[in-house]
Specification:
Elements lengths: L1 H16 L6 H17 L12 H5 L3 H15 L9 H32 L2 E4 L5 E5 L6 E3 L2 E5 H20 L2 H14 L4 H24 L4 H11 L10 E2 L5 H9 L11
Length: 264
């Protein structure tokens, strides 16, 4: 409960104050910090000399679990045990946890299968280029860049620069952390919104790297529009056509945020 409250409030602050600014690296650090702090801060115990009326009335999760266990043991009868709604909530939680983990492993398995059964080339900087015949949106994961033969021939340079930026900034590790947080709090909408915001930041950083490599902005934006309709199959990978196209183009055209904006 504490994690949910902290994460929800941090997400609201981020949306109001930082989401439209152009210092992407700082925003990325802020989002990762939100995920970590929301897990660590509830573990911090704050002691007071006198018990306030609010503290006296609010029970911690540990107290509720102990009270539930004591009540369960008190009402157990020989040969029968009543079903409590708390047990139903625990069952629903673990069913949801099992579902999101299986979905994650299924996505990872399909991606590894595609990489294994495609033509693979080793580039000079240690990156592995995987070229396949299927019509899928280009994406990157760890040290792998996966692209179709058609995309490589038509617009390979722009896409490779974009995906290399994902690898250079180690965006895959961010997604692994976000997935782990989503496992534990799959029922909390804020964690999925935070993950989406983090993926948006990843695309902003990669788009900025493409434009800094002396690539014509207009031609790159036209490429994004062309590839916007492609499917995204792997939730744990950095897909070339991830995020809302309008937001990415708007961020490219936005004036750089001033240093004073960072004070927020």
């Amino acid at each position: 409960q504490r994690q949910m409250c902290i994460r929800d409030r941090f997400y609201l602050f981020y949306r109001l104050l930082l989401s439209k600014e152009t210092f992407h690296r700082f925003n990325r650090i802020a989002l990762l910090g939100v995920m970590l702090l929301s897990c660590l801060l509830p573990l911090v115990k704050v002691t007071v000399e006198q018990v306030s009326p609010v503290n006296a009335q609010v029970m911690s999760m540990e107290d509720l679990l102990l009270m539930y266990q004591w009540n369960s043991e008190a009402v157990v009868e020989e040969g029968s045990r009543p079903f409590h709604w708390q047990e139903g909530l625990v069952l629903v939680y673990f069913v949801g946890l099992f579902f999101v983990i299986v979905r994650h492993l299924w996505s990872l398995g399909r991606m590894l299968y595609l990489i294994r059964h495609s033509r693979c080339e080793r580039l000079d900087n240690g990156i592995r280029l995987v070229v396949h015949r299927r019509k899928l949106a280009p994406f990157s994961w760890m040290r792998y860049i996966v692209i179709s033969e058609t995309d490589l021939k038509e617009s390979g340079h722009h896409i490779l620069v974009h995906e290399m930026a994902h690898i250079h900034y180690r965006h895959s590790w961010d997604l692994l952390l976000a997935e782990a947080c989503a496992w534990l709090q799959w029922f909390n909408p804020a964690i999925w919104l935070l993950k989406q915001e983090l993926q948006n930041i990843h695309e902003y950083e990669a788009d900025e790297a493409v434009l800094d490599s002396v690539v014509d902005a207009r031609s790159y934006q036209m490429l994004l529009i062309k590839k916007a309709a492609g499917g995204r199959w792997y939730s744990i990978a950095n897909s070339f056509n991830h995020s809302k196209l309008k937001n990415r183009i708007t961020m490219m055209l936005r004036k750089k945020s001033s240093r004073w904006a960072g004070a927020k």
